Structures are given as C-alpha cells and as structure tokens.
C-alpha cells in the first residue's frame, strides 16, 4: 500500500473509546439514551436497507466489526435477521450493546474481540461482515496504522464465507482508496450510493459505502 496514512488521532486509541462508552453506559442507565450512531442514522440505514434487499437469507451469519452500541445489529434483527454477532475491542462497548438490545433482541450475541490482535478462527466464517468506522479508527491509530490496516484486511478476508459479502462504510477513505486497499484480497461487488456534495468544481461524498465479495 503506497497511500499516505491518516494523521494520528485519539479516535484511534482504545483509551478514547473506553472513556466514551463508559459515559454512554451511564447515560443509558440514567436516561435510556443508547448513544450516538457513528456517521449518523441515515448512513447506517442506507447499508441496512441494501442488506435487506441483497438476497441474503435472514439466517445468514452476520458479524459487525466494531459494533459500538449495536445499532446496526438491532436494526437487522428488526428486519428478521437471526444469526447476529457484534464484536468490539472495548468491553465497555459490548456492555452498552448488551444493555441496549437485551430486552427486545436477546438473541444478538456480543463478544470482546480485537481484529488486529485476536485470531478470527475463534469466530468462524460469516456470510456478511459489516464495518462502519472501525477501519477508519484503525487508520487513525498513532502506532503503526499501516501494519494494523494490513492485518485488518487479512483478517476480514479470512472471516468471509464463500460468496460472502463485506460491507464497509468510511468517512476517511474514498471509494477508490477502499477499492485499492481491499481489492487484492476481495472483489468489488457494489458501491452503495451516498449523498454527494460539490465544492471547487469537484464532486465528492461525505461517506463511502462499498461492498466486496470473495474472489
């Protein structure tokens, strides 16, 4: 990968997310507020709508990498998906997600898992692998983000079942960059349309959502 790396940020550190989710747990327990949806609900719902209409069986094994408060999984459960797993490297995020979903969707499973460190063999294979913002956070890691990104890509490829789908949403990498990063291990299937803006004569998107499949 010859791309320049992102400028390091506290958003790429586990300490930041542990503190953030600790506050969100307190807010949920005191006020019932499940917390923010990364990139906003509109961005998440576009991907959820696409997944619901892509022809995948509702019992397809789904994993959400960096699940946060579990919003995406709860919405997929609402649409009838039954085999759902959320993983995050922060125990605090897993605790929040479990608290948010347990009353309405107790069948959603959650697990503490660091995709750049732990073995994906313990998770198994998935027909759908979803990521909204986790690859971004990995790219913001102050400590060797390139190696972490390369490990992430390798791990995701190993998690995909035959003809499986990997859906990634990013606000830091363009569609072309994502296709370049993941294209060696996976095959481009679809770019999910996102709202565009025009500035200085150039057209761009606030976020990029790209779907890959196994080669």
Automatic annotation (TrEMBL):
Protein's cellular compartments: Cytoplasm
Example of a GO MF term: protein-lysine N-methyltransferase activity
A Pfam family annotated for this UniProt entry: Methyltransf_31
Residue intervals of the Methyltransferase domain: 57-190
Coiled-coil ranges (or none): none
GO cellular component, one term: cytoplasm
CDD domains registered for this protein in UniProt: AdoMet_MTases (cd02440)
Sorted UniProt keywords: Cytoplasm, Methyltransferase, S-adenosyl-L-methionine, Transferase
Biological processes per GO annotation: methylation
EC number assigned by the record: 2.1.1.-
SUPFAM superfamilies, sorted: S-adenosyl-L-methionine-dependent methyltransferases (SSF53335)
Matching InterPro entries: Efm4/METTL10, Methyltranfer_dom, SAM-dependent_MTases_sf
Enzyme type, top EC level: transferase
Task performed by this protein: S-adenosyl-L-methionine-dependent protein-lysine N-methyltransferase that methylates elongation factor 1-alpha.
Family per similarity comment: Belongs to the class I-like SAM-binding methyltransferase superfamily. EFM4 family.
Cited PANTHER family: EEF1A LYSINE METHYLTRANSFERASE 2, PROTEIN-LYSINE N-METHYLTRANSFERASE METTL10
Record's protein name: Protein-lysine N-methyltransferase PYW07_012710
Source species: Mythimna separata (Oriental armyworm)
Taxonomic path: Eukaryota, Metazoa, Ecdysozoa, Arthropoda, Hexapoda
């Amino acid at each position: 990968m010859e791309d320049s790396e992102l400028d390091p940020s506290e958003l790429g550190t586990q300490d930041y997310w542990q503190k953030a989710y600790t506050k969100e747990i307190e807010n949920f327990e005191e006020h019932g507020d499940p917390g923010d949806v990364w990139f906003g609900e509109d961005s998440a719902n576009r991907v959820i709508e696409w997944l619901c209409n892509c022809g995948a069986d509702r019992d397809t094994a789904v994993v959400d990498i960096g699940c946060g408060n579990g919003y995406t999984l709860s919405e997929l459960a609402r649409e009838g998906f039954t085999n759902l797993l959320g993983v995050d490297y922060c125990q605090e995020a897993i605790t929040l997600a479990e608290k948010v979903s347990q009353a309405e969707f107790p069948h959603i499973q959650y697990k503490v898992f660091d995709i750049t460190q732990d073995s994906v063999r313990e998770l198994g294979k998935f027909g759908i692998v979803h990521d909204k913002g986790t690859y971004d956070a990995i790219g913001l890691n102050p400590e060797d983000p390139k190696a972490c990104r390369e490990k992430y890509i390798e791990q995701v490829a190993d998690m995909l079942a035959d003809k499986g789908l990997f859906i990634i949403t990013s606000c830091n990498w363009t569609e072309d960059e994502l296709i370049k990063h993941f294209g060696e291990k996976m095959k481009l299937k679809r770019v999910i349309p996102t709202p565009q803006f025009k500035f200085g004569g150039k057209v761009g998107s606030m976020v990029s959502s790209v779907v890959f499949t196994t080669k």
